[in-house]
Design a protein that fits this description.
Layout (H helix, E strand, L loop, with lengths): L4 E8 L16 H13 L4 E5 H7 L30 E5 L23 E6 L5 H10 L2 E4 L7 H12 L3 E4 L3 H9 L5 E6 L28 E7 L5 E6 L1
């Protein structure tokens, strides 16, 4: 199958948690900066996040609301390529809940700023939501009728947008789904020297998608680099 080379790039605690107070702790600020530096260093064609991660990382102005598009519109449910771009922000949003102010990301980090948005949807989304995406210049791809076929999505990202290298950047549920679908080629972890909260989300939170509970072959260590404040950068390859 033609697909991008997919690298799961995350910050984790020692026990593999990707959420928690440690991410906002000033003493680990240099490790967060290392994460963003490595993100840029990979020179990928795009990054992919789940809906919650995308919404938390790139919040939209309050005036962009679903009520603006409250009438069902007869919009054809076919893939929509708004534009070709050098870098993409791919959002897994099966039910169509993310409303955008424009078709690209605005961020202070040059590794994210200006990325053209691609929404990943199911056919369950409303026509008015598709109208919104078209109006704002957001591209979108359909990954299934009611459940997402991640292999199909990966293939479309490669063939419709030319994405050769894609950074998979959470959250844990989306990471787990890509792992279960055997689509991850490399894992890049910036590890903070802290133990996370028991209720925090794991790096690979599996079982949330309708996928076989199987896993790919084991990964081997490609790189281990010590970072500031007793952190590590670990890279594993399939």
């Amino acid at each position: 199958m033609e697909k991008p080379y997919i690298i799961c790039h995350m910050v984790t605690s020692l026990d593999g948690k990707v959420t928690g107070d440690f991410l906002g702790d000033r003493q680990y600020g240099s490790l967060i900066e290392s994460y963003y530096r490595i993100h840029r260093q990979y020179e990928a064609n795009g990054f992919l996040c789940g809906r919650v991660t995308m919404e938390e990382s790139f919040p939209q102005p309050a005036h962009v609301q679903a009520t603006t598009y409250d009438n069902e519109m007869p919009v054809s449910k076919e893939d929509h390529v708004a534009k070709q771009a050098p870098f993409y922000a791919v959002s897994i949003d099966p039910k169509g809940k993310l409303f955008w102010s424009k078709g690209e990301i605005t961020d202070i980090d040059e590794g994210y700023n200006g990325a053209h948005l691609i929404e990943i949807l199911t056919h369950n989304v409303s026509g008015c939501f598709l109208e919104h995406l078209q109006e704002k210049g957001v591209s979108y791809l359909f990954g299934g009728k009611s459940e997402l076929d991640l292999a199909l999505i990966a293939s479309k990202l490669k063939n419709k947008f030319g994405i050769e290298k894609l950074l998979l950047e959470g959250g844990g549920i989306v990471n787990g789904a890509f792992l279960q679908a055997n689509l991850i080629d490399e894992i890049s972890l910036v590890v903070a020297p802290v133990v996370g909260s028991p209720e925090a989300t794991s790096l690979f939170a599996t079982g949330h998608y309708s996928l076989p509970n199987t896993f790919p072959a084991s990964f081997h260590l490609k790189k281990a680099e010590q970072l500031d404040n007793s952190g590590l950068w670990l890279v594993y390859q399939k």
